[in-house]
Batch of 3 targets.
Target 1
Amino acid sequence: MPSFIFPFSWTKSLSALLAWMLIWMAMGVCFVATAQPHELSAQEQYVQQWSEEAVYQMAVHGIPASITLAQGILESGSGRSQLAAKSNNHFGIKCHKDWTGAKVFHDDDSRGECFRSYENASESFQDHSAFLKRDRYQTLFELESTDYKGWAKGLKKCGYATNPKYASLLIQLIEQNDLGKYDQQGLALQAERIAFAEGKNAADAARHAVLTNPSKSTVQRGRRAIQLSERNIEYILAADGDSYPELAVELDMMPWQFYRYNDIDRSSGPYQPKSGDIIYLQPKRKRGDQAWLTLRPNESVWQASQRCGVQLKSLVRMNRLSPETPLPATGRLSLQWRITPEGKLPNWVRMLRGPGG
């Protein structure tokens, strides 16, 4: 039988083909076995660590988060320069005449120039925002807060740096690291901040609607009393012997909805609610009505989540919880805002709320 692929017999061709297939399969196994997980670059690590601070500064001061992050990466060598590592100065801000804080001396344009020194890097971000709100940079605030190219060119024009390529370097960093998305987060937080200051909190409005319409607080569905929480979320109280699959049939829902709405991990196996437990029939909220919730003795964060109607993942994020710190050291949970590393509400929230904030 003639072969149009190999110049030898069909049997030998088939054997050779199989041999090559085995070789390539073996090579594929080797590639898979030696593949390593992606390690974050220095720039990616910097963005991961400081993006939230940049977003916060944008919400409060109007400086694009993308610009703040790009400047931080460029000026501090992604947080690894001597000035950043030893003095927490991420933006290369020099002392100037009006600086009364700590100082450190480094060679820059001239030998032994005076730079500002901070107790922590967050102070550097705050001072960077204050520095850019000087008269010298006021024209920048006439630009759209998402116009990072305009801001980059404006910083160079206003004399922030002497490097003639400063603007193009910032733009390159922003686009390479997709930093523009943090400007959108900054705008969202800014709108939320304004709404809070004006007393237009949607959660408060929902709560008011429930409290002023008590007739809506309980609805009968078959033998179940469907109750409406102060957060306007439907729930029932578990009875003896209740299970999610049976409740799903009885209430015309899907079993996964009970697990998701009540923050139960399905991978741990079937969950059996206890008599009297709250079982939500709708998603919990991302934020609470009040600023804080005091934990009861021996109460877990999940139990607190069920009690206040706020999603567990939101509580974990807002309170900076982790497997190492599963409970807040203060004994109370923030329900509306992400606390600082020191366990306090953000400065602007405390200022709006007053001494009791």
Target 2
Amino acid sequence: MRILIVEDDKKTASFIRKALQSEGWAVDACGNGDDGLAAALATPFDALVLDIMLPGRDGLGVLAQLRARGNRTPVLLLSARGEVNERIQGLDAGADDYLPKPFIIAELVARVRALVRRGGDTKATVLRIADLSLDTITRELQRGGTRIELTTREYRLLEFLLRSAGRICGRMTIIEKVWDYDFDPGTNLVDVYIKRLREKIDDNFEPKLLHTVRGIGYVLKEAA
């Protein structure tokens, strides 16, 4: 599971991040509304923890833009004020839950866990492109009716590319989302795994699905 935190207070964001990571989830964090909106639109997340009071675009503005663009990721709103009118406004804008500050971290984790479960009811469990299909429950991959075995890391890479199908994924983005590194290890790690994945899903099939965009990254799509 991947969670996005949009919180401008670094200490609070770090506190939440460590708690969610202890649950085994991958966690990204942004410190302002504009970066949070861009991240939520660029990457599929299982839930968002979104503060209302943010620099630039506030949390309600971020939420409104997400819902206007058809993004249905479950959102837990945070606010230091906790006013009833603000809570109603957030829920009306499309928030799934609301937690006033200060909060008990165990309650926040429990609420995020509930959102992830709820969101999983409507989230696609079988990802497809052309004749390639990946069942995210059984982790079974097939192309053209042929079953293909993947290692754990190959699976994570392919799932990320499928959920980002049609969008160019930069090397650093892949490192962050698939390996959970927030730095470039300075190796050809991504290239090695892309090569392995391409051998499995493309070498004996047509059309080719995994394409290199020179100098930028990789994209999974039907046409080159």
Target 3
Amino acid sequence: MAASSETAYIVFDTESVVDGALLGRVLYPGTPLTPGKAVEQLEKELRGADPEGKAFIPVSFHVPVSIGVARIARDYRLLDLSCLDAPRFDPRRMVELFWKGVQHYEHSSLVTFNGRGFDLPLLTLSAFRFGLSCPRYFDDPDKFGFRYRFSPKHLDLMEWITEFGAVRLKGGLNLLAKMLGKPGKMETRGDQVARLYAEGKVQEINDYCLHDVLDTYFVFLRTRVLAGRISLEEEQTLVGELRGWLTERAKAQPAIGKYVDSFGTWNPIPFE
């Protein structure tokens, strides 16, 4: 693909784990709880307070362990796809590379799925923790800049498709990807990340993150059809080109091969 094209969009996704030590210092000071037990205690409290028994610990206690990024050209072609700081995946270095990228690609917009609700708060708090700067994002003089909810500089696809939170999108990114015949969730899911990290399977987490980035990209393309930026025929041409590009890239990145092997055909007919 045309690697010389200007980067117009940065599609990204993150995976994270809870910093149990920080959580314990903040919520359970003076108790004998270990970091692991502090996490278990908060999860127990959250499950008890949630009607559905869910226990997702707030983003304020999370640390990124994967940041997957795709650079997209103005004509919506994929320019590059990677997980930052591979194969070390050091949290500080990953966060530093992300914000450097936002600063460097000065004509780019961010594209996420639930990025306003999770990924950007995670990366903002991580920049605060590590003492990192990104004036283009944090000191944007434009009142409709990155941090404005309806900004063209950040397209949160979940908000866009739900009328900015007017309805709940049951199924999330997985639903939308599968609507398009793309893999969506395969063997790994978000609630398995903590266990995989504890087992030292950081590469597996990053492979999963890369798959989510690709799903996000394909959903982004379809929203551009809805918005009239490209035609359905142009979208399908891009999808066909990308499948070939990914097949070639899979020779060096096995995780991409797994995604391509699960690549389906778009069939919009209901009930089939």
